[in-house]
Structures are given as C-alpha cells and as structure tokens.
Design brief:
mainly alpha, Growth Hormone, Chain: A, 26 helices
Length: about 525
C-alpha cells in the first residue's frame, strides 16, 4: 500500500521574510547593537589605539584576554538567572532589571577606558578592559535569555538573524565609528603624512561610544518582560540564602584570581619540559598559559566544593542553579552531548583567532585608520549584514545543520584569501574582495550557529545553558587569540593565516557527522 504524501513542513519564502517585521523580532536589532558595541572596543579599535601609543604587538594581543569573561560567563550566569535585584525587579521585571544593570556597567567601563591614556601605563587600561568584558558578557547572558524566552520556536532563526544584524551594526560603530571619530578629532595631517598619536582624539571617540549605549538602555526600558513562567527563577528564598549564595560566588572568584596571579608554574615547566621537547615561542607560551589557567580553575573548583559542604550554604539552591542545567542537557542528549559540546568549542575558532590581529595586519600593509574603517568596517559590515540576513532565510528554509555546515566551510576557506592579501600588499581591490568573502561567510556562520545554540536550550534553564554554550564557543579562540601576536612574530602572516584555516577542519567534520546522523534518523522515521 502506497504511503500518503506527507505535507511539507517547510515554510514558504514569503513566510520566511514576513517574520522580520514582528515587533519582538525588531527589538533584537537594537539589543544586538547594544551587545555588539563593546566587543571591538576591546579588540580591533583598542588594538590600533595601543599600537599608536607605542605598545608592542605581543602586549596588544594579550589584551584580547580581557574578553575571556565571554568564555567564563556561565559561572555567574546562574546569579543572573536566579538572584532578584531589589527595587529594579519590581519596576522592570527580572530580565529587564538585569539588562539595565549590565548596560550601566558597560557604559562606566567605556568611560573609564576613555579617561585612561595607555601611553602612561597599561594597568588602568587593562582593568577597565576587564570590567568592560565582564559587563558586556553579562549583558549578553541576559539578552540571549530574553531572546529565547520572548520568541516562538519558529521565530528563533529570524530573531537570531536580526540579533546578528544589530550586533554587526554595533561592531561597525565601535570599529569604523571609533576610527572615523579618532581621525576627525585628531590633528589635521597633510596627504601622505604619517599618523601621530593623539590621546585626546581617542578619548573623545570612546566617550561617544559610551553615549551610543543609550540605544540599548532605551530599548530595555521600552520592551516587555518575557511572559514566561521561569519557575526556577521565581522560587522564593530567604534573603540570607541569596546573600550566602552571592558570597559563595565571590569567594570562589577571589580564589581563582589569587591562584592565577600567585601560582605560576609556567617558568619551571617551560625549563624542564617545554624546552626539553623543543617547544618554544608561541607554542610554549600557549601551553604554559593554558597550564596556569587550568591550575587556577582547579583551585577555584576545590574552593567551591569545600564551601559547598559548609553547613551554612543553601545546597539545594546551589544544586538547582549550577548542577541541574548540566544534568538536564545530558539527560536530553546523552553521549551525543559530548560531541555537541566539542563542536561548540571549535566552531568559531578559525575566524575569531584571525580577527584579533586583522586590523594590525591591515595597518602593516600600509592602510591608514580611515581606509581600514572604509574597507574593514563599513564595507565589511554590509557583507556581514547580507550574510546574516541570507543565512536567516536559508536556515528557516533548509534547516539549521545544512547552513551550519556551509558556514563552517566558508569561515575556514576564506582565511586562505588573507594569504593572497599578504602577498599582494596594499591593493585596495584585493582587500575589498577578501573582506567581502570573509564577512559574508562570517554572517552566515554566526546566524546559523546562534540558531543552533538556541535550539539546544531548555526554557527552564535558558540563561545558564545558553551561557555555557556561548562560553565554550569563545574559550579556545580567546585563549589562542592572546598568542596570535607571538605566532605572527614567529611564523609570519601567511603561515599564521594557513594555521587558522586548518583550525576550522574539526568543526567541518563534526557538523558533517551531525548532519549525516540527522539524515539517517529522518530516513529511519520514514
């Protein structure tokens, strides 16, 4: 007997486009802007500022570690998910109150950076950058949770695409906008005259960025609190439980910081092990830094376990907040969850490691700030927006995994074009082609990946689970990115770009396997 024809569940092209006009989808454009603005104030724009101030390239790329907060935000995301903010929660609701607080932290950190001249020392700038990374990562936790809770399942791809568009607009403001403003506020130079360092111009440019965060603040005040029954968030606990819970987090954080600062086995290990294996330069630095980080994490984990078993700690509260989101994920995915986490860990490594050094690379070719802003930020933004919107439509039409695979292939392959650019030198047309390909692929990959991560979350643990996923996504790229300056100094730009291309192969293989498994499962259901 012939099976009846099964009606296709694939939406029409008109339905795939119409969804972008819905108000809660449009709101993600402005929240994405607020989330994207701080990022380049730590990476690309700050790199050029430090370069003009006379900071060496290795120290410049170490500043990318200020954004390691993005990789560890899962640690304090349960606080954002659970702890109510006095007064503000009653006025704005749980999500919006936290969003307003984190946006205030971002604004204060940007102002602090603006009032700090790196030419007079890097300590103040480093602390301000760390504060910006922490506040911005916390803002991302809230926005991600709000996005997932506000939209229906069929809206998540569109909301992710709109978020990517807003995010890239924020990056343009912090990238091209800062470079334009720094040039405009700076001294007048004759054509062809080399640029000189002018702290006042960078200061005013960063203060303008602090003002642009008002877009995010206004959106927070205008949107509605998600109408979701977050039972675990709304459980009422005694004030003392919340205070002890917060104190536990602070003590564990302090133990991590102290261990990282004072327990540094790297010199001894480098001398006895790394040098014996002839691991030198950036490889030795990366391994030594990773060992130091793992040691600090281990000390913090031991401190957390000791504090957990103290009789005054609300264990059930800690268990539901930290352990249950992880147990829930593995209950749903079992052993497959390990491969999914591995994919999350390596998916963005290829393009993000390259991105740390890209602006310095463009400058080394002879391009000035305005040219970098025109090509890399403005034109690049247009390509990224196109990639994000096209990726959103394709994902809704063809499914997440197909476009996830396409994005992984493109993000890795386009890094080879940077090798050609390194050989051709200062060629504006070649730069435009490379930036077009790189940003178009980044837009497609980013949108598909955000939609994929959103599909993995359980609404009961939205903030915590998504924070874990997005933290893993950034962990390896941020660690490796800090050593990118040393890698370039050791092997040169062409070989560095080849290395970043090869870094993308594991992601391609993992997505291909998940896609193959999904196809087999679908065929079996038939």
């Amino acid at each position: 007997m012939t099976k009846p024809a099964r009606k296709s569940e694939r939406p029409s092209w008109e339905e795939s486009i119409e969804i972008y006009a819905r108000p809660r989808v449009l709101a993600l454009l402005f929240l994405g802007f607020s989330a994207g603005l701080p990022l380049l104030l730590i990476f690309g724009s700050l790199s050029l500022w430090l370069d003009e101030a006379g900071v060496d390239i290795s120290s410049i790329t170490y500043f990318s570690w200020a954004a390691l907060a993005y990789s560890f935000k899962f640690i304090w995301s349960p606080l954002i998910d659970r702890l109510p903010l006095p007064v503000l929660r009653g006025l704005l609701g749980h999500r919006r109150s936290w969003l307003l607080l984190t946006q205030a932290g971002v604004i204060l950190a940007i102002v602090w950076m603006a009032l700090t001249d790196p030419a007079n020392g890097l300590a103040g700038m480093a602390m301000a950058a760390v504060m910006l990374g922490f506040s911005s990562a916390s803002q991302d936790v809230v926005i991600d949770a709000l996005r997932i809770e506000s939209g229906a399942p069929d809206e998540q791809a569109a909301m992710s695409a709109m978020y990517v568009v807003g995010y890239r607009l924020g990056m343009m403001a912090a990238g091209a906008g800062v470079l334009y403003l720094a040039s405009w506020f700076g001294p007048d130079l004759s054509a062809g005259e080399p640029e000189v360092y002018d702290y006042a111009s960078w200061k005013l440019a960063y203060l303008c960025m602090a003002g642009l965060m008002g877009i995010g603040v206004a959106t927070t005040l205008l949107i509605r609190e998600p109408a979701v029954n977050r039972q675990r968030v709304n459980v009422i606990h005694a004030t003392s439980d919340y205070a002890i819970f917060l104190l536990l987090f602070i003590l564990v954080t302090v133990s991590f910081v102290l261990a990282f600062v004072y327990l540094n086995p790297a010199p001894a290990v480098r001398q006895q092990v790394f040098d014996w294996w002839h691991w030198s330069g950036p490889v030795s630095d990366f391994l030594a830094g990773t060992l130091r980080l793992l040691l600090a994490v281990g000390v913090a984990a031991v401190a957390a376990m000791v504090l957990y078993y103290l009789p005054v700690v609300p264990r059930e509260m800690v268990k539901q907040t930290y352990f249950e989101p992880v147990f829930d994920f593995f209950r749903r995915y079992a052993w497959l969850g390990v491969l999914i986490l591995a994919l999350i860990l390596v998916y963005r490594i290829s393009d993000l490691v390259l991105g740390v050094i890209s602006n310095v690379f463009y400058k080394s070719l002879g391009f000035n700030k305005q040219e970098i802003a025109n090509f890399s930020k403005v034109f690049g933004l247009i390509m990224t927006l196109a990639g994000g919107l096209v990726g959103g439509v394709l994902t809704r039409h063809f499914g997440v995994l197909r476009i996830l695979l396409l994005g992984a292939i493109l993000a890795s392959a386009t890094n080879l074009l940077f090798m050609l650019l390194a050989e051709t030198g200062k060629e504006p047309i070649m730069l435009a082609l490379v930036i077009a390909a790189d940003n178009l692929s980044a837009g497609i990959a980013s949108m598909a990946f955000i939609a994929y991560l959103s599909s993995l979350t359980n609404i009961s643990f939205t903030a915590v689970q998504y924070a874990i996923f997005s933290s893993l996504m950034l962990l390896l790229p941020k660690l490796l990115g800090g050593y990118s300056g040393g890698m370039v100094a050791s092997v040169g730009y062409p070989n560095f770009f080849l290395i970043t291309t090869l870094m993308g192969i594991p992601a391609i293989l993992l997505v291909a396997w998940l896609y193959y498994r999904e196809r087999r499962a679908a065929a079996g259901d038939d």
